Amino acid sequence: MANITRIRFAPSPTGEPHIGNIRTALFAWLLTRHNNGKFILRIEDTDQARTVPGAVEKIIESLKWLGIDWDEGPYHQSERLELYRSQVQLLIDKGAAYNFEDERGAAVKFNMPKDGSIKVKDSIRGEVTFDNSLIDDFIIMKSDGFPTYHLASVVDDHLMGISQVIRAEEWLPSLPRHICLYRAFDWEPPEFAHLPVILASDRSKLSKRHGATALLEYQEMGYLPHALLNFLSLLGWSLDDKSELFTVEDLVKLFTLERVSKSAAIFNPDKLDWMNGHYIRQMRPAELADTLLDHWHKYPPPEINVQPDRELLIRIVPLVQERLKTLSDAAPLIPFFFTTDFNYEATELVQKKMDMEQTRLILNVSKNKLQNIDEFKSTELDSVLRTLAEDIDVKIGQLLGTLRVATSGLKVSPPIFESMEILGKDRILSDIDRAIKKLDSIPKNI
């Protein structure tokens, strides 16, 4: 068994899994796959009072979204109660545990050694020493008949043949209790690795005030699973001082605990945005279009209230791809491609240092020029409209600003010539007609 890598991820279903939970799962999974071992999913639901309905489903959904698979499980500790009770009785029979009464009823405590110390090698922190005299006896079986984490995790890790326990730094103070339990059972303990804490950019504890903390919130915000997986892999682990972009295959090949830092990891949202934007820019137009459609199906954007045509979207995405940090950035930039029902104030047509009459002139002469173009392509539109701006003595930025609002309802939009080509002559002329009517509806004395 010593040569076989068996590692578990054992979350408690007390809410949606957050960044820290999933970083632990990822490191455990990478080490397992690196060693061609078995990855086990175990749900530690013995604290019934804190169990949240639907949390297990969220855990599974989060892991699947990131591509973290498992070979065994999910096992549920709540279905293994008789096993724990029999093991507790063995400890009582040995004198290593004892019954006692508290305010909730009968429970069982483990009898900690009263002197000496415990030395344990942590795979990340090296040798750590604990003074037994500073550790009180602790509950291993509660009055409700459910075991505590200390007892259940030790029993399960042994019986499931877990070779390495990878968990958060917060569990390090519990390590001497667990080692004493292993010794009381005459079991060989697994190797332990306690991962560094994750802090916000200001080095405070990561919390809601720093943004999302639950993993699936990042899915809703439009982050790609591989970008998030890559980002999480660097929260406490690094290959060197320059490498930041990794495929999953690279991470599996390169990941070792020796490269995990003892120091706190810093969650940098700007770096996540950069990384996500990088992976968005690497996508082929059809791939990005399909990813956007899937995202919008799960999280419908308010800006797009119709079912977008896939082939049309494939033509559109190259116009905005360079500007996207998240998938959610796309919808506000492109709603006009899918509907003519976009609104804007007539005064928005009037650009800086222009008046109503100049704006009306731009719209009318642009309409006349555009309707005579046979080849409605971006290059031809570029040439015709730039020449037109010179002919009527306005800046090209003013002319295009008016046409941009008229054809998209936006002050900032994707490249206008390419957008006009995609929309087509009939649609553009119709938009300009509507803009002229909007402008004509404004009282002349305004």
Walk me through what this model shows.
This protein is 43% helix and 13% strand. By secondary structure, the protein is α/β, with parallel strands linked by helices. Among the domains are: 81-195, Rossmann fold, CATH 3.40.50; 283-337, Helicase, Ruva Protein, domain 3, CATH 1.10.8; 346-440, Arc Repressor Mutant, subunit A. α10 (285-298) crosses α11.
* Chain oligomer state: single chain
Top-tier CATH class of the domain at 81-195: Alpha Beta
Spatial arrangement of strands, main beta sheet: 1-2-3
CATH architecture of the domain at 81-195: 3-Layer(aba) Sandwich
- What helical percentage do the residues reach? 40-55%
Strand content: 5-15%
Q: Give the biggest sheet.
A: 3 strands, parallel
Total of helices: 16
Cα distance spanning the termini: 85 Å
Global shape: elongated
Low-confidence stretches: none
Order of helices and strands: EHEHEHEEEEEHEHEEHHHEHHHHHHHH
Kindly name the structural category: alpha/beta
| CATH domain fold name of the domain at 81-195 | Rossmann fold
Q: C-alpha Rg, in Å?
A: 31 Å
Explain the layout of strands and helices.
Layout: E1 6-9, H1 19-34, E2 38-43, H2 55-66, E3 72-76, H3 81-94, E4 97-102, E5 105-110, E6 117-122, E7 126-131, E8 138-141, H4 149-159, E9 164-168, H5 175-185, E10 191-195, E11 198-199, H6 215-221, H7 225-233, H8 248-254, E12 265-266, H9 269-281, H10 285-298, H11 310-320, H12 356-371, H13 378-391, H14 396-408, H15 416-423, H16 425-440
Parallel strand pairs: 1-2, 2-3, 9-10, 11-12
Antiparallel strand pairs: 4-5, 5-8, 6-7
